[in-house]
Structure formats: structure tokens, C-alpha cells
Amino acid sequence: MKNHLSRRSVLGRLSAAVAGVLAAPVAKAAKAVTQKVLVTTDAPKDYDPIKHKWVMAIDANRCIGCGFCAEACKKENHVPEGPYFRTWVERYIITKPKPGSGAARGETLVDCPNGGITGYPEAPVPKEEIQHSFFVPKLCNLCQHSPCVQVCPVGATFDAPDGAVLIDPKYCIGCGFCIQACPYGCRFLSPVTKTAEKCTLCYHRITRGLKPACVEVCPTQARIFGDLTNAKPEDPILQFYQNNLVTALKPHLGTEPRLFYAGIDKEVR
Amino acid sequence: MTNDMINIVVEVMPHFEGYVYPNEATQQPLWGVLIVLYPYITGLVAGAFIMASLVRVFNVKALEPVYRLSLLTAFAFLLCAPLPLLFHLGHPERCFEVMMTPHLTPRWRSSALSMRGT
Lengths: 269, 118
Hints:
The complex is a heterodimer of chains A (about 270) and B (about 120).
Chain A: H1 7-38, E1 54-59, H2 68-76, E2 88-95, E3 108-111, E4 130-138, H3 147-151, E5 157-159, E6 165-167, H4 177-181, E7 188-189, E8 196-197, H5 203-206, H6 213-217, E9 223-227, H7 236-243, E10 246-247, E11 260-262
Parallel strand pairs in A: 1-11
Antiparallel strand pairs in A: 1-9, 2-3, 2-4, 5-6, 7-8, 10-11
Chain B: H1 2-12, H2 33-56, H3 67-80, H4 83-88, H5 112-115
């Protein structure tokens, strides 16, 4: 049998493969640079997104459900009145199992009136029936494989090189695709700007060296925010990773969230 | 009129029980009647066009009197078929961006300097 692989074709294929491997990081860097130069964000001019990696983490054990974070977020980011939230706090109530049932835990009751800003009503079940209850602050999960970025028909939503998932408000056409795609319900169509809006990690604040508004006001440090690239060993975010067993929301969806939770139950969705 | 139609659709929609994320607990569905109108109108276009093609392509003599009417109907509905989708957008004036995607950057309209830090 004749050998079809000539030296020329083998060399050609090899060099193409090498070129492909070499081109990938170059393309990545070029994308980061173009994003830095050409995208509308709230960052100051001298901010370099490549030198940061912003992450947030939630210690649900510490959350007392005061709702300050949701309120601060609304004020800081001019989120419109009504059912529009960039962050909110859910109350989970797990009841005791019904007598005679084989289950170890009862039903899960979740509520979040007005994002948790105005407090929570009396529990819908008597106190004796509650096994335990807890609060879960919610915000953008900062997915590595964001469904919202994948579906945007105009490329207005993008992964910033510093870990934030942002929307270019001058590019968004307000079709609502990303709102349908987000499995965490973190986006809404603003009735004011007619574009999609979401948690930006308070991009205008973090790029100027401040913490996000919700982290700033949290009285119990249930929200931990940090910069992984520039974190010192005693940084709260590294301490959090070191001292807690963390989980992400809906891991089966493969979105790879960068927002981690400590102290939440399996019932949390 | 539009509100009545939206109400009908909302009533037909299944009512969810249990917890819904606060952003998703809106009064009206995000994608409403306007989205449904699009396939409805394109269906009319297709139907009228088939009527016209029956005459010329398949030589159905019985439909000769409606040939002109059906072709015009198809054309008229074709012109307004994209309108419901356009008006459902938050910014219909930016709809052409869909045709410009994928692109290198989200912003290409003004100079690079004016775009930073706004």
C-alpha cells in the first residue's frame, strides 16, 4: 500500500496545528484589549481590567435578612421601583416532615416580598412545624460560561476580562433574550432605559477602589468581595475560601458560577 | 384592545405555584402577544403565496381570479411581518445591530477615545 502522507503535507499540518495553538492566547489578549479600549463601561480611564479578577462570595450563615444590601443596590444603581432587583434576599423555610411520611425533611417555602427590602411577613406555617429557616442573598452569579452572553443577538452583553459580566447600554436592543436565558433570574428589562440590566458588581465603584454598595452596607459581613489577582493571604475572600466549604447555585447547568455560597441547603435554587 | 388581548393570553397561560424569582414575577410576560403575532403574520404570507403559486406553478385554473389578490396580500403582509417583533424591542432603532453581529467590539460607531470612560 502506498503511503499518502508526504513530508510536505505532514509539515504543513504540523505547522498549522502549532499556529492554531499559538494563535489562541493572542486572540484572547486581542479581545481583552479591544474590550478595554472600545466598550462602554463605568470604569475610569486609567482602569486596566486585565490586572484584576473580581469575585464575590456569600456566607449565608451570617445573613440576617435585613435587606440593606437590596436597598443599597436600588439606591446606588438607580434601579427602578417595582419588581426589578439587581440583588435580593430570599427567605427559605424548611418544614418538619409530615407525620407518617418517609421524608427526612418537609416542604420548602420560599418568599421574597419586595426583594427583602421591606422585611418579611410572619411565617406561613406555625413555628412548631418549622425545621429551620435561613436567608439567601442573590445576585449575578458571574458565570464563566454565561448563558446570557451566549444568547445576546447583538453582543451587548460580554464577559469583562476582570470577571464581571456587563451590558453595554448603548448597544443593547432590549429584546429580553438574556433575561429568558439567565437561570438565576438576575436580569430584568428596565422600564426606564428599555434595556436589560443586571448586577455589575457596582462597576463604577470597584474600578475606583471601593467595594460594591451591598458589601459596604452589609452589617454582618455576609457578603465578601475581593480581587483574586491582587489578594494578600489575609484578604477576606481568600480567608473565606480557606475556611468554608463552598457551593454554587445550579451547578448541573454547567454555567460555572464564580459566585460561591457557604452555608446554604440543598433546597436553594 | 391590546390590553384586552394581553389579558386573554395571560389568562390562558398556566398559573405558577410556589416561588418565582422577583425579577420574573412581573405582571405581564416578557415575551407577549407581539411575539406571537409574528408567526401569525408570516403564516398569512405563506398561505397567500401558496395560493398565488397554485395558479402559475401548478396550473390550477380555478384560482386564476384571485392570483393577483393573493400575491398582493402576501406582499402586503410581508412588509408588516417584522413590525411586531420590532415594536417588542426596547430599542427598535438599533435592530440593524443584529445583522452586524458577530463583530470585534460592541462599539464601533464613534471614535475610540470618546467611548472610554463614559
